[in-house]
Amino acid sequence: MSEQTGNAHVTAVGFSVFYGAQEAVKAVDLGIPSGEVTAIIGPSGCGKSTFLRAVNRMNDLIPGCRAAGKLMFDGEDVYGGNIDVAMLRRRVGMVFQKPNPFPKSIYDNVAYGPRLHGVTKRAALDEIVEASLHGAALWDEVKDRLAKNALGLSGGQAQRLCLARALAVKPEILLMDEPTSALDPKSTARIEELIVNLRGQYTIAIVTHNMQQAARVSDKTAFFYEGVLVEFAPTSDLFTHPKEKRTEDYITGRFG
Amino acid sequence: MKRRKIVDWVFSGGAYCAVAVMVAFLVLVIGPVFVKGVGAYVFRGTVENRRMMLEQFGRGDSVAVLAEWAEVRRARQPVYDALRAFEREMDEMPSARRKELRAAFKEVKEGVAELLGPEPGTPLPALTRRIYGQTRWDRAKVKRAHILFEEQWDYSGGDGVRVLVPRAPMFEGTALALVFAVLEKDLEGLLRPRLRFYPQFLTDRSIDAHFFGGIGAEVAGTVYLALGAMLIAVPFGIVAAVYFQEYARGGPVLSFLRSCVNTLAGVPSVVFGLFGLAFFINTMHVSRGKSVLAGALTLALLVLPTVIRASEEAIAAVPRTYKEAALSLGAGQWRTILTVILPAALPGILTGIVISMGRAAGETAPIIFTAAVSVGPLVGLGDVLSHPTPALSWNLYNMCTEHEAADEIRHVQYGMALTLVMIVLALNLAAIFLRARVTRRLKG
Fold first, then answer.
1. ipTM
2. Under a CB-based contact definition with an 8 Å cutoff, are residues B306 and B264 in contact?
3. Does B189 contact A at CB distance below 8 Å?
4. CB-side exposure of B250: number of CA atoms within 13 Å?
5. Which residues of B touch A163 (CB under 8 A)?
6. Is residue A1 scored above 60 in pLDDT?
7. Which of A58, A149, A165 sits opposite B324 (nearest CB)?
8. Alpha helices in B267-409 (DSSP H)
9. What is the CATH number of the domain that holds A59?
């Protein structure tokens, strides 16, 4: 537990999220360690996605959604009054459940973020696009058709493109919201491989339904149940010696 | 099992019926307009038409036309001679006989002047339409019938029945008998009908209240009004749609605004016309009187709800995930809208725009009080802010109902109707084409 507090990139202290009157995340205390992969697991509706989407304030899109408690990102209060949300989101990359490339060319998809943040020179953009596509292990597959529409990519390729798009703004942390739930096993394996490769360069938080996936890719795992953080421990410990009864029931498949 | 089949059968039968009825309607409505409207562009033109074209529009081979004109004049001379001979004959007649024939002769003489034009050498009439004989063969045959037959009504059976009584027997044995014989047998020699393609009908100016020439001023007016209306309605419409979909947070103000838009869509178009007159012209003084600008503003109001709704639907149909992706990359709301949402919504927005444009092109009531004049020259682009213009929709109505010789220019009326339908059709086809193109670009 000492690691968690010592070098946390994102820290939640008594953090709650409400949808209207319903409390979806209940007073969670959690530190996502810097440079490591943290998996968040739990049954459907347990608040794990809601928690993840609070980090870059994507929950703002949902009417009636509000937060309480403290959520700190790199020492800044995410829900503080003077935070620049656009700036926060630029520093926090996100990959969504369903691949969601823009209906633009592959190049324009990756270049979208850098352009947004003022990179206009073609050479600089080219460099970023290539580096990002390399980072997402997609470069070799698409280098000859960068001008083609991204909607023509397969699901797995599209998801890696979304990862490249997120990497292109050089975020400090990557949030992945069930990034492989819409993909076939082979594409899933490639994404998992990427997560392992990106470990160390970025802080990664991944929400997943798939416990094997959490076990394969993460350093630490957090188990959410009904909005409450039940257990947070190094992945190997959590899956072999869960301290909580509910964790054990869940990972052994007794519910969920 | 059996019942399901019957229900299936009934449903698909109903669908086919609906489609068939629609097609039949289309054919019934568009068919006659098309057939008769084409007559404005392709018809059998007489030598009078060629002469008119040469003199009024400087079009055609002047040597050939003048040579033909000389030949026709020679062929017509006996007719004019016979008219004059009969006038002398009439002076000699007993007064009872003269009284009997005078009215009929007057009609014949006037009919000949309308059919063939005034006798060469006599002073030219003031109206251009009277300088020439019948320029169209179909009209020439109608005029000939007016000369050859007298229309009488037979009420013996109770209801009036139209009876055509030949005039020739009345003039048997007089000099005028020749006129009837020639008109009956050799009208072609007097008028020389020939197939004429007249595509310039679309762009030519009209002469003497559409007796001759084309509908260029009306077409230009319709294009100005439709384009002008879109120029005004589209930016406002899209901004309003963006507000409704992306900014408005719900609540009573939003529902009030929405019901305003919906009500606007249900307001009769003539009310828009009166409002345009009262507000844009009389209150805002956008122009001193009717003008293209005032008409375009009024039409813009009329189509605004359509543009807003179509744009709203298109924006609502953009997957939320695009928006999430853009926001997660640090885009502000406005950047997200400009760079992701509007481009993805473009096909739907375009469809709305073009459909509205078709509506703006066809509307009559809103422009009566604000922009349209019955007769006017082609308005130059520099004058659209201050000048009124003829326009297809209004002039079509006007020419069918108020024109002093509506019967004689049916071909122009149908030509206008066809042109208007074609413009709207072309706009719709353009919408389909554009939509397909943009969608292809978006879908990859």
1. 0.91
2. no
3. no
4. 3
5. none
6. no
7. A58
8. 269-275, 292-316, 320-328, 333-336, 342-362, 365-368, 392-401
9. 3.40.50.300
What is the least distance, in Å, from the CA of A104 to any CA of chain B? 6
Give kind and range of the element (H or E) at residue A25. Answer: strand A22-33
**CA–CA separation, B290 vs B298, rounded Å?**
11
Q: By the CB < 8 Å criterion, does B339 face chain A? A: yes
In total, how many domains does chain A have?
1
**Around Cβ B148, how many Cβ atoms within 10 Å?**
17
Do B325 and A56 lie within an 8 Å CB cutoff? no
Closest Cα in chain A, distance from residue B332 (Å) = 6
Among partner residues A93, A149, A169, which is closest to B443 by beta-carbon distance? A149
Can you read off the two tokens belonging to residue A248?
Answer: 């054990």
Q: Cα A159 vs. chain centroid, distance in angstroms?
A: 13
Residues of A with CB below 8 A from B344's CB?
102-103
Question: Closest to B329 (Cβ–Cβ): which among A61, A63, A89?
Answer: A89
Q: How confident is the model at residue B440 (pLDDT cuts 50, 70, 90)?
A: confident
> What is the mean pLDDT of the segment spanning B154-170?
88
Structural domain includes residue A128:
no
Q: Both tokens of residue B244? A: 């409704």
Chain-chain contact of A151 with B443 (C-beta, under 8 angstroms):
yes
DSSP B280-308: IIIIS-SSSS--HHHHHHHHHHHHHHHHH
Contact status of B54 with chain A (Cβ, < 8 Å):
no
Structure confidence by residue, pLDDT tens digits, B316-330: 999 999 999 999 999
Query: With an 8 Å Cβ cutoff, are A90 and B329 in contact?
Result: yes
Show Cβ contacts of residue A197 under 8 Å, excluding neighbours closer than 6 positions.
Answer: A137
Task: Check CB contact under 8 Å for A113 and B441.
Answer: no
Residues A49-74: pLDDT tens digits?
Answer: 999 999 999 998 888 899 999 999 98
What topology is assigned to B216-443 in CATH? MetI-like fold (1.10.3720)
| Beta carbons of A101 and A151 less than 8 angstroms apart | yes
- Residue B45's CB is within 10 A of a number of other CB atoms, namely 22
Residues of A in contact with B323 (CB under 8 A): 61
What does the domain layout of chain B look like in residue ranges?
44-197, 216-443
Say yes or no for a CB contact (<8 Å) between B330 and A61.
no
Q: What is the residue range of A40's domain? A: 2-101+171-251
Measured between CB atoms, does B441 come within 8 Å of chain A?
A: yes
Answer whether residue A107 is part of any domain. Answer: no
How close is the nearest chain A Cα to the Cα of B260, in Å?
24
Contact (CB<8Å) A151/B444: yes
Phi, psi (rounded to 5 degrees) for B151: -90, 125
In a domain, A15, yes or no: yes
Count A/B contacts: CB-CB distance under 8 Å: 76
The model's confidence at residue B444, banded by pLDDT at 50, 70 and 90, is low
Chain A residue numbers touching B441 (CB-CB < 8 A): 149
pTM above 0.90, yes or no: no
Q: Does some domain include residue A246?
A: yes
Query: Rounded distance, CA B25 to CA B211, Å?
Result: 32
Q: Is the pLDDT of residue A3 over 50?
A: no
Burial of A19 (0-12, 13-18, 19+ CB in 10 A): middle
